[in-house]
Design a protein that fits this description.
155 residues, alpha+beta, Yope Regulator, Chain: A, 4 helices, 6 strands, 37% helix, globular
């Protein structure tokens, strides 16, 4: 799969960039740093959810995803991130989804309310994470999205 070397390179660049920063802990209040990390995987923009909490809308190659900031106080100071990728129009069987959930440790898959495939991953930020750890989780997310899209036969 030719997408994997690109993803691996992006993850390495992300790790090198973030590790060059001070080793302070990043929290859900650090939307700019989290957005910068997402931009190293591809395009990403900061927006707001309907309730006013932050949201990152991004792309890794041609695969779209969102990062929802969750458990926020006053639309800031968020406690965790929810990474989400939906694959509209791709309707794998429940057996294919169950195979993913049985065989993969990271990323939980399901069929949404219209039976389209979706995959999610969470990151707890309550005590903060180092820039290196954020980089590793972003790299992991990019691998989850790429491998899941292949697993379900997307495009």
């Amino acid at each position: 799969m030719k997408l994997m070397p690109t993803i691996a390179g992006a993850a390495l660049a992300l790790a090198m960039t973030l590790s060059a920063q001070a080793h302070t802990l990043l929290t859900g209040s650090d939307t700019g740093a989290i957005l910068d990390a997402a931009k190293l995987l591809g395009t990403a923009t900061l927006a707001a959810q309907p309730n006013g909490d932050p949201l990152i809308d991004g792309k890794i190659g041609d695969l779209g995803y969102q990062v929802y900031f969750k458990n926020c106080t006053n639309n800031a100071a968020c406690e965790d991130l929810n990474f989400y990728a939906g694959f509209g129009g791709t309707k794998p069987t429940l057996a294919v989804i169950n195979d993913w959930n049985r065989d993969k440790r990271f990323g939980r898959a399901y069929l949404d309310e219209v039976q389209d495939a979706a995959v999610e991953m969470d990151l707890d930020l309550v005590k903060g994470v180092t820039p290196d750890y954020l980089a590793s989780q972003m790299g992991l997310w990019s691998l989850v999205v790429a491998e899941f899209s292949t697993h379900i036969g997307y495009k």
